[in-house]
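Fold sample X.
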Amino acid sequence: MFRAAVRQELDTALGDVARCSDEEGVALERRVVAALDAWLGRYVGSMPAPDIGNLLRNPAMQLADMVDPAIAAFDARLAAAMSEKDRRRLGVTAQEIAGALHTVAQGAKYLSNARAESREKFMAG
């Protein structure tokens, strides 16, 4: 049952990420922040927030078969949101950009006490 709940939460988060990152007529920065918030911000400020990352990555929980592909799907979705023009301008691959943004946003969420605060940190980054 626990695995089913984790699977549902991962699928819900990835669906929210897809909706945010694919939103037509929205600037890249806003789509990226919304996608980061959908993936990382959903539990900021809640009681289990500080422990969720450790729980999902704990080898004893045996969730890597679900979590690792979900993380890869998130990074791929974030990378796909960036146009070729954005990537050329920055001189890096979309995957490098997505990976860096994901890593930085993970740190920002642990420095926040509320979801709105984490979104502000994502915007400032």
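Fold sample Y, listed below.
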Amino acid sequence: MPALENTRHEAYAQARAKGRTMDQAYIEAGFAPNKGNAARLNTNDRIKARIAELTKMAAERAVEVISFEAKAQFERIQAIVTKALEAGDFKTALAGQQFIAKCFGYEDNPTLTHEHVLGRKLPQVAPSNRDDDQDGPKKPIPGDVASAMAEALDSLRRGDRPN
């Protein structure tokens, strides 16, 4: 929908799309303050459609600005880690790997990230050694989680797709 022909109606619609109240938008559009007229103008079908269109366009622009591709971000960070390794700066390389792990959720919820990267769940608890300890406390298996994380990172580096 093109801009409304009436410039004050267009100004009103743009102000409403920016979040102004009916009264504020009415005054900003150049009308004399009048709550009843502002409310009536707000019920106009063409103006409502224009407000909806402007709001949708603003939302689409916001999504474009704040969106990013996680794989591209990962690759950028991984390139920095690789350069640090090549330069022999192991402390920075390790910090970079830890940063990647933190950003991709390995610290807070390893299962979520592994499911998305590998397409399968990781074992989160150690199997019980006793048959009668079915409901007893189980302990995480750090080695399995760490090796699966390394496998997932290697998979991403190779460009493999999840199953």
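Sample Y note: The longest helix spans residues 45-66.
Also: The CA atoms of residues 19 and 25 lie 9 Å apart.
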